[in-house]
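User: Here's a chain of 661 residues. Predict its fold as tokens.
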Amino acid sequence: MLKNLSIRIKLLLLLLLPVLGLLFFSGREVLDKYAALQDIRQTEQLIGLSVRTGALVHELQKERGLSSGFINAKGEKFRSELAKQRGLCDEQFKQLAAFIAATPDAATIVRQALDAAAKQQEKLSDIRNKVDALTIEGKESFGFYTAINYSYLDVVAAVGRSSKEPTLMRSAIAYFAFSKVKEEMGKERATLNAVIAGNAFSDETYQRTFGILSAQKSFMEGFRKFGSRAAVTTYDEKAQSESFKKADELRNAVLAKGMAGSFEITPETWFSAITAKIDQMKEIEDGIAKGILQQASDQAGTARLALILSIAISLTMAVLTLLLSLLIVGSITGPLRKLVEMLQDIAQGEGDLTRRLDANRKDEFGEVSHWFNRFVENIHSIISQATTTTVQVATASNQLHSTAEQIATAAEEVACQSATVATASEEMSATSNDISRNCTLASDIANRASEMAHGGASVVQETISGMQTIAEKVRESARTVEALGARSDQIGAIVGTIEDIADQTNLLALNAAIEAARAGEMGRGFAVVADEVRALAERTTRATREIGEMIKAIQQETGGAVTSMEQGVVEVEKGMDSSRRSGDALQQILEGINEVTLQVHQIATAAEEQTAVTGEISTNIHQITDVVQQTANGAHQTAGAASELSGLAKDLEGLVGRFKL
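Assistant: Prediction complete.
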């Protein structure tokens, strides 16, 4: 499946997984930052809920103290203060309900604690009525207000537990611990307010007071452990104030009296002093809450900035990754596309071998381009050499064809002349026979020797002339055959040149095939051309070898003909000598009849020898005619082979001409 996909698609698929992974993890990081921001915002809302809950508890603590004083004073004290305080508590209830309605998501997290506090709140109206009617004991009133305060402080504790931010969690725990300290101070205010109003401790109130002081100490240790240094320092500074000192002095004075009673302190004095201390505690509590809110706001801003930066970085990385991916894909597919286009142009187009790839790159494509350009240069050189060789082969084949035609024409002329010489030889043979018969008759007609001597002299003179003609023709035939041998040597040299050219062409084609094989799939087109060139070179080699073999045969046969001609010339010269001697004999016959018989015998002998020589000459001439005919046929075959070689050279020139050099 993958092999059918383009490299561009493969690269995009290769880059797809990292890009998707980057987008996944970037998106996950953004979602985590967004979730952290939402958590901090939610924590900020919860802290706001905790602050409003603390404000409500603060007012309920006052109502608890006033209610205890009102009950123990039998309704004679704190009536107006209690009514006013209830109004403040109701206002805090409304503000808390409005905040819960405005932040339903935050309220959902502490819904269980809020529901428990709401159940306690439902009893508040009934408790208030009982306090007004003095139908409830101070202990029961104290227990109810303590329970409702605890239920709302549980909301503060739930806020601390729900925070996922460690620093905010520590601050929330410190805030809860400080609220518990203040709650215990509120319980202290209510308890001692009731004790002072009754002017005596009961066992229960006495034990409760020390339990309250012990709880204050425990929660204060928790505050010091988890609270910030600034909050602890603020508390330590406030603890040195007059309100703290006065409240502690009044408490210590009451505790010093113990169970004896008679405290000499009015409830109003105690309530005012402890309320001043608790109010300062409330200021510290509000400062702690404000610090937590500021801390949450700062962390929300930091989380918001982190979210924005995460989104910006993720988008930037995604865009940069996409652009880089496109650039990488383009840097790979671009050179490949140019390489493919160039190969297509060479294989199917104009075969432009002057084009080159950009080899200035420093990567693998630059190296591929460099070696591809070297390959094209080698092919260019090979094709150029093949072009030159093709022209040389065409020229040589044309010359070979022309030479073969000349050889054929010359051979035909030699054949004609050989036929003439053969005819003359036959006539000379017949003449020799006549001479022999005449010589025989001459011995019988010695008396007519003188007359016949004149006739014999004429005949001898004609014989000498004929022999000279024969000698001249034979010499001319020998020269023609020698010229034919020289032509054959020239043809042999040309054939050797053609063989060298064919071998060089075959070698060049083999080199081209090797270079194409090295190029692999990209050099397949060059391999086909190289194979065609090599096939043409091999055909040229075979043709030239056949021509060479024919030329060698012609040279051998021409050499034999030259030898035969030379022998014929020798024999003709012998015949001429014999004819001259016959002439001399006839002259001697004229000088003396006594020598006639001897001369006739000599003439007869010479005539017989001449007959044999002329017969041999005739035979040689016929052989020369056959050889010349074979030479003519070989020349025609050479001309045909040269024509075929010329056609092959034109085909090769056409193949090579497909390339632009």
